[in-house]
Amino acid sequence: MRLQNTLTALFITALVGTPLISNAQMGGPGGPRGGWMRPPTAFANNMMNGTAFFRVDPDSSAELLLLRRNDVRSALLMDGSQQQKMNKLLVTLQSSQNKAVLDSRMNAFASMRGQFKNFSSLTPQQRQAQLAQMRQQMQQNISGESVKEQQAEDAQLATVLNKWQMNKLHQLDYQFRTPLALDNPDVAKPFKLTAEQASQIKALYNQYMQEERTTITDLLMPAAPPAQTSGSQPATPAERRAAFQQQMQKNLANMNAKMQDLQTHGIKLAAPLDAKRQALGKQVLELLNPDQKQMWKKLEGPLFYFNPNTSDATVSDNT
């Protein structure tokens, strides 16, 4: 039961993008009475940075991610001095963003703690429905802060980039997010979408987000441990607890190794997901009338080729 609940925590991590660790993982009481703890900062940052190129929510700006890409830096004509300054700034902004995301989602989880009480007893269909409701509640909790946070982030980026570069970055951001970004009410407002258009766009957006969650789950979730025969099962509670903790250490080590690999090869590994986002974005574009299509074309600017083989800039506050 403890292992099931802990793996459920990791599963939820992949589904909603929030690093969670159960009390059992940290050596505390687990099982039905175990609660959810805030994960160690290093683990949370490793999780978020490792999956950064996979966690592209078209509802939100992807500018910090884009500024790590060397093909985007070339398109922005950033000189050596700007790149050095940007490397340092991105460390600060990414750390702040990770903390803000973690804080908001941990608060959301705290407010929904009771929903986990009987989670392990639910059917797969009931679990999916409950997780979908949780994701919707979380999105509502953080959506009100997005515009204000984006403005603050842009103000800091503008200390390194000039006006032309900032405008180009905004255009590249919309291209990267694709017309799926119209699921965001602030982006969609000037387009005056009909209720039917908004509903269809929401369905395509949800399809992409499910694809993204599945991808992250497949990449990060540890393989199920081999089934034990009755004769090989630990006999005493202490032995079972020790066996569980040993299995969790292996799982966490495996996840950390995978996250390190993602940080090294994230852009290339995320390419199929990027292609899926582009394909669904084209479907959204087909839902728009001619005037709305022109508005989108103006928003995204001249088309840019995001090279799946580009390298990730070495971002460090020491560069």
Task: Provide an overview of this structure.
This protein is mostly helical. The protein has one domain. It contains twelve helices and two strands. It has a two-stranded antiparallel sheet with strand order 1-2. The chain starts with a helix and ends in a 19-residue tail after the last helix.
Give the topology, please.
Elements: H1 2-16, E1 21-22, E2 36-37, H2 41-50, H3 63-66, H4 70-75, H5 80-111, H6 124-157, H7 163-177, H8 185-188, H9 195-220, H10 237-269, H11 271-287, H12 290-300
Antiparallel strand pairs: 1-2
Helix pairs in contact: 1-9, 2-5, 2-10, 5-6, 9-11
Provide a brief overview of the structure.
This protein is mainly alpha-helical. The protein has helices spanning about 1-15, 40-50, 65, 70-75, 80-110, 125-155, 165-175, 185-190, 195-220, 235-270, 270-285, 290-300; strands at about 20, 35.
Name the poorly predicted regions.
Answer: 1-47
Mean pLDDT: 75
Helix fraction by DSSP (H/I, runs of at least 4):
55-70%
What's the SSE pattern?
A: HEEHHHHHHHHHHH
Rough outline: globular
Structural class call reads mainly alpha
Number of helices: 12
Q: What composes the largest sheet?
A: 2 strands, antiparallel
Number of domains: 1
Q: Care to count the β-strands? A: 2
Distance between the termini: 47 Å
Across the major sheet, the strand order is: 1-2
**In percent terms, what proportion of residues is strand?**
under 5%
Rg from C-alpha positions? 21 Å
